[in-house]
Amino acid sequence: MSDPLLVRALRGEKVERVPVWAMRQAGRWDPEFHRVRAGMDFFTFADDTERAAEATLLPKRFGVDGIILFYDITTLLVAMGQPFDLVPKVGPMPRWKADSAEAIARLNSEPKPESYAPVIRLLEKVKQSLQGELPVLVFAGASFTVATYALGLGKDLDAVRAFAASKPKEWNDLLERITTATKGFLGELQKRGAAACQLFDSWAGGLTLEEYDRWAHPYHREVMASLTMPRILFVKEGPYLERMVESGATAVSLGSRHDLAAARNRWPEMVFQGNVPQELMRDGTAEEVYAATRACLAAGGGHHHVLNLNHGVDPKTPVANFEAFIRAAKS
């Protein structure tokens, strides 16, 4: 049997049509997701294999070409020994901060698979349910972004910079520990049948080029080099496209700041993912979403392209707009 359409496209092979999936395709925009979640807090929900699997599989009914597992990028930090709570309107917050040499030393850089057993159970459950019908994607946060959460700072880049300047040795140790753990985590999921992965460096797009070259790019390269499955790099509105292309990723996910056709022309052998605007998906009409999706497909040229958004599906996105996005992809 040939490999799934999405996997072949991520490898840069010739495909019969451009595959489509969306970041956060299983999420709060879908009324069925709320039904399955039934008011449970995030981490309890994510650890409930049956419910998390049902939520993960919800986008299948729309006709997506890949299924991405439902968990959080802080899942790995929890496995490393740092517990988190999801604070409403704030996001994930650690119960203790990895902001000293002693605290960072508490993070296990080689967590055993049992420490992230819910993700493994979820992968096995979803694969069993799909029976090979669709490929299963997994993901991890990249070292810089995950480190900001370990510090309890999130996207406050000035505070992150201040920590890195005042404690450079501890900062580098934190990045290296997370990188080692990320390689082990994704490598284990690869062994257990994940078809592809996406590495999210959500906040690295706000770095200067010098900072990116010290705190993001080397760690992207190290993680990508450790894996053999197709690998997607996502840096939210990342300005340094040349570095992203040089990361060792199989595919690079584009934000709104980059022109897909221009990127395709400059790097004809690179697979690009994206980049229908999530803002249009949220605020536009179904007809506008359909037209924008068809324009994106035209810009991609029908090859070395995976259709997706510039970011995740916004919680306020109408279901009809998501349906139009998928319909346009398959027209």
Strand order of the largest sheet: 1-4-5-6-7-8-9
Please provide the ordered H/E string of secondary-structure elements: HHHHEHEEHHEHHHEHHEHEHEHHEH
Query: Please, how many helices?
Result: 17
Radius of gyration: 19 Å
Question: Can you offer a commentary on this structure?
Answer:
- The protein has 331 residues and is an alpha/beta fold.
- It has one domain (5-329): TIM Barrel.
- The chain contains 17 helices and nine strands.
- The chain has helices at residues 5-10, 31-37, 42-47, 49-57, 75-80, 101-105, 117-130, 143-150, 157-166, 168-191, 209-215, 217-225, 241-245, 260-266, 278-283, 286-300, 319-329, and strands at residues 67-68, 84-87, 91-94, 136-141, 196-200, 231-234, 251-253, 271-273, 305-306.
- The strands form two sheets. A seven-stranded parallel sheet has the order 1-4-5-6-7-8-9. A two-stranded antiparallel sheet has the order 2-3.
- β2 and β3 form a beta hairpin.
- α2 (31-37) runs antiparallel to α4, α4 crosses α7 and α10 runs parallel beside α12 (217-225).
- It starts with a helix and ends with a helix.
Please write out the topology.
Blueprint: H1 5-10, H2 31-37, H3 42-47, H4 49-57, E1 67-68, H5 75-80, E2 84-87, E3 91-94, H6 101-105, H7 117-130, E4 136-141, H8 143-150, H9 157-166, H10 168-191, E5 196-200, H11 209-215, H12 217-225, E6 231-234, H13 241-245, E7 251-253, H14 260-266, E8 271-273, H15 278-283, H16 286-300, E9 305-306, H17 319-329
Helix pairs in contact: 2-4, 4-7, 8-10, 9-10, 10-12, 14-16, 16-17
